[in-house]
Every structure is written in structure tokens, then in C-alpha cells.
Amino acid sequence: MSDELFQALNEQMNFEFYSSQVYLAMAAYCSGESLDGFANFFIVQAEEERFHAMKMYKYLNDRGRRATIAGMDNPNNDYHSVLQVYEHGYEHEQIVTKRIYHLSDLALNEREHATMQFLKWFIDEQVEEEAMFDSIIQKLKRIDRDSNAFYMLDAEFAQRVFTPPTA
Fold first, then answer.
1. What are the tens digits of pLDDT across the range 26-50?
2. Fewer CB within 10 A of the end CB, N or C, for the chain?
3. In sequence order, what are the residues at sequence separation of 6 or more whose Cβ sits closer than 8 angstroms to the Cβ of residue 130?
4. CA-CA distances (angstroms) from residue 121 to 67, 74, 79, 101, 117?
């Protein structure tokens, strides 16, 4: 693995840690609005992002490279609605997708087959992440914040848990 690819993977690992912070900030907003189910959704999302970061951490170490942890910018903590929170989450996932594609392009250009295979999991994950956020946004746009459907969605998200993939 070239130094350029290593640095890019290390930067993405740190971005995944940052993504965890982004989702914790979203959870805090939802908690502040007494929407514990929506808060739980983002707490689970934060756990997933940390899992992604640790997956990269392990991969770098398995490849004989030492992962380096960097500081993070403060995530946005100011929102005006649950819809805005999810829209911001969707935009964030689109950024992650572009970053993963960039890593994949680097690996492809270097013919770094192990890294190409490793990144396939992240590409598949990003398809799921973007689809999930888009679906939730469409649901939120169809329901009114004061409707029973909004609170049913909040209750549904209260049941969400993080189960790390086995493969």
C-alpha cells in the first residue's frame, strides 16, 4: 500500500470517528426536544460510525501500518427541526460516500486488491445508509410533527439497536 493510500485511509478512519460525533450531536438535539426515540436512532448511528472507524483502524494495523488518531472539528449542534437533522445526516452520508469512492479509486489505480476488497463492504454500506436516510426524510415530509405518525416513528426508533456485522 502506498503512503498516499495509507494516508487517505487514515484520514477516512478519523472522518468516521468525526461522523460518530456528528450523530451524537444530532442525538443531543433530539434528546433536548424530548424525542428519545429519534435520539436513540442517532446514538445507534454514532455506534455504527465508531464501528466503521475501528474497522479501518484494524485494517491499517493488519496491513502493517500504524493508524494515527487526529483531533476533530466541532460538529453542528444547532438544528431547528427533526427533519433538518435527518437532512443534514443525509448530506453527511453523501459526503462519506464520495470519500469512500475516492479511496476506492486510489486503490484501483494502485491495483491494491486487498484494499479494493476491503472497501467493497463500505461501498455497500453507503448504499444502505443513503437509502435509509432518504426513506426517513420522505416519511417525515409526509407527516406533521404533531401527528400520531410522528410519535409512532419516534417510538419505532426507540427500539433500534446496533448489532455489529459478523462478516
1. 999 999 999 999 999 999 999 999 9
2. C
3. 90, 93, 94, 97
4. 20, 28, 31, 12, 8
Return the C-alpha cell found at 30. Answer: 433530539
Measured in whole angstroms, the distance separating CA 86 from the mean position of its chain's CA atoms is 12
> Residues 107, 115: contact at Cβ < 8 Å?
yes
pLDDT digits (tens, 9 = 90+) for 150-160: 778 878 888 88
Q: Packing angle between helix 3-32 and helix 82-110, nearest 10 degrees?
A: 170
Predicted TM-score (pTM) of the model is 0.90
| CA quadruple 22, 27, 30, 31: dihedral sign | negative
